[in-house]
Predict the structure.
Amino acid sequence: MEFDFTTMMDRAGRDAIALDIIPRLPVQPEIGITPIPMWVADMSFETAPSITEEIIRRAKHPAFGYFEAREEYYQAILDWQATRNGVVGLQREDISYENGVLGCLATALNVFTSPGEGVLLHSPTYIGFTHCLEDNGRKSILSPLVQDQNGVYRMDYADMDAKLKAENIHFAVFCSPHNPSGRVWEKEEIEKAMQIYKENNCLVFSDEIWSDLTLTGYHHIPTQSVSPDAKRRTLAVYAPSKTFNLAGLIGSYSIVYSKHLQDRMRKHASATHYNHMNVLSMYALLGAYSEKGAQWTDALKEILTHNIAYACNHIQSHWKGVSLAKPEGTYMLYLDCSEWCKETGETLDTLLHRGYRCGVIWQDGRPFHTPDSIRMNLALPFAQLQEALRRLDEFAFQI
Ligand SMILES: Cc1ncc(COP(=O)(O)O)c(C=O)c1O
């Protein structure tokens, strides 16, 4: 294969929270064991070579003064959105740089809601949203996703509608594809949700940061594409950061078609003086949203599809009392360990600690608002994934 998805990078001491968290864990890995990071949403893969090349090329010009985003930056986004997401009619003016998706959410919350106001989210919920809402003094109102007879997470439209009405909510966060459930929403599902938001006069912050990482057989539908109303009422946010492992460079962008909404967002963002692009992150996006970057993404998606299928099969056939919904996108797996806790009489902490002890740095899923759950990051070389599952078989589940 042209790209390297098999080498396990040694990220220890190399600016990686994925490993730097270890001293702060309640239980330490056994001496001599190599930790395998499987929690925070970045990948144990090298980024695409086209990105490193762009950054190095730019860094060789030793001047990093004030700058404006290049025309190529906008063109790369227009081309990427057209070819990857089938977006038509997008203009340069509809795109704004954002200092992270959560930075954009903070701006939107401050512009469109008041302190104490409720915001509708689906649960399980990505913890970044809950923190952002709390930090900005807004209330999270959760509408739980419900698993259907096949275990697939679905939105509960009646519950969404009732909560929007009961709490007078006019701002919702919609995560598509959804972290941590891994759902890639179907067009009809997004249409129904957007109809409910419309009927309740609700603005929609559509976080599509995971849109590039759909697994084989699934396709991302941009929220703004489902109807003319959805196009106007949605603030959509994208980034190359999840797709290409660039979270440390910062560099998201929003697509807002309504000039009214966009002017208000830009006014607030400019008043903070914080929402400025970093020149290297601009070049990272140029390397990412290129032909080579697209090829790398396609290769990555195959790797993730394989890792996820393997892990799901393994867990379903080996870990009694643990259930899961097979992800359709992202590289996250959300495990329901409630039956395991019941059957063994052990707590989730015990299970988590067993994992840490054998060097598997997985993540407590309870802050995502589901009891007795664990979130696992599967974006790592296959050999390490196998090793992690083997260790968990032996030390956590005693198979
Ligand atoms: C759904 C979702 N949104 C946003 C983020 C973070 O985005 P950013 O780093 O651009 O703030 C993450 C990171 O895991 C995420 O999963």
Notes: Residues 55 and 280 are 6 Å apart (CA to CA). The longest strand covers residues 118-123. The chain has a mean pLDDT of 97.
